[in-house]
Amino acid sequence: RSLIVLEFRRVLFDLCVATLLRLGADASRANHEGRTALHWIASAGFHGCNAEAVVAMLVDGGCDAAARNADGQTAGEVAARWARTEWGMQFDEWVRAAGARGSLRAA
Hints:
This protein is mainly α and 107 residues long.
């Protein structure tokens, strides 16, 4: 892949997610395998984009980090299994941080 394509994906991925959520996309929706958007980004290991911002947007948008897919795994468990343990730990930290921000706003 060229550097331009990689940079394009990195810059626009979070913008695309933000736009879809703003237009009413259901962040909590799961597919036929029980995979939510958090499961998808967890398994993809998107190190080339602002994954922390995308995770925060999805959690803020109502995506349940505790939701389990058809294999019984949360998105955090998927991140640890399909990527690297480091990615899984980092992913879990982002989910916790987004949840804490959400609970502060609700108070």
